[in-house]
Design goal:
mainly alpha; 0% strand; 181 residues
Length: 181
C-alpha cells in the first residue's frame, strides 16, 4: 500500500471545508440576506429555496468527508494503535462529526417544517413576528440556535484535522535532513 493518502485526505478535507463553509455562509449570508427581504412573507420562503439548493451539495460534502475520514483511519491504523495522541484526536473527531451530522440533519428537518409556512409573516428567517404561527415560531426559535452549531463544531473539526497533520510529522524531521547531507 502506498504511503501517500492524497485521495482520501482530499476527500476528508474538501468535504469538511464545504460543510463548514456552506453552513457558515448559510447562517450568515443566506439567512441574513433573506431576513432583509422587504416583504415579511418572503423571508422564510427565500431562505428555504436557498437551503433546498444547498442540501445536495452538503450531502455530498458529508459523504466525501466520511469516506475520506474512514480511508484515513484505515491507512493510519498502525499509527493510531501506537500513538495515543492521534488515537484520542480521532476519537474526539468521530464524536464531533456525529454531533455535526446530527445538527445538520435536525436543522434540515426544522428547515422543512419552516418551508411549510412560507406564506406567513416573519420578522426574520429565524425570528418570528408577533403574528407568526406557534409552529413556525417554534421551528424558528430552535433554528436560531441550531444554525450556529454546525459551523462551530465543523470549525473545531478543521482544527483537529490540522492537529492530526502535525502529529504525522517526523519528530526531528528537519534535524534528520540536515545530518543526512
Amino acid at each position: 500500500m502506498s504511503s501517500r493518502n492524497t485521495l482520501v485526505r482530499s476527500l476528508h478535507d474538501i468535504g469538511l471545508a464545504a460543510w463548514f463553509g456552506g453552513s457558515l455562509m448559510g447562517a450568515v449570508g443566506l439567512n441574513g440576506a433573506a431576513a432583509a427581504a422587504n416583504n415579511p412573507r418572503e423571508r422564510v420562503a427565500l431562505a428555504s429555496v436557498g437551503w433546498k439548493r444547498w442540501a445536495p451539495v452538503q450531502l455530498a460534502a458529508l459523504a466525501a468527508h466520511g469516506i475520506g475520514g474512514a480511508g484515513l483511519i484505515a491507512a493510519n491504523k498502525a499509527r493510531l494503535a501506537g500513538q495515543p495522541g492521534a488515537r484520542a484526536n480521532t476519537g474526539v473527531k468521530l464524536v464531533l462529526t456525529l454531533v455535526s451530522i446530527g445538527s445538520s440533519m435536525y436543522s434540515g428537518i426544522l428547515g422543512t417544517r419552516m418551508a411549510e409556512h412560507t406564506n406567513e409573516r416573519s420578522a426574520g428567517v429565524t425570528e418570528p413576528s408577533s403574528d407568526t404561527s406557534a409552529e413556525l415560531a417554534s421551528a424558528q426559535t430552535q433554528q436560531r440556535v441550531l444554525q450556529w452549531i454546525t459551523p462551530a463544531v465543523t470549525f473545531v473539526l478543521v482544527i483537529l484535522a490540522a492537529q492530526q497533520g502535525e502529529q504525522q510529522r517526523p519528530r526531528a524531521g528537519w534535524l534528520k535532513s540536515l545530518t543526512n547531507h
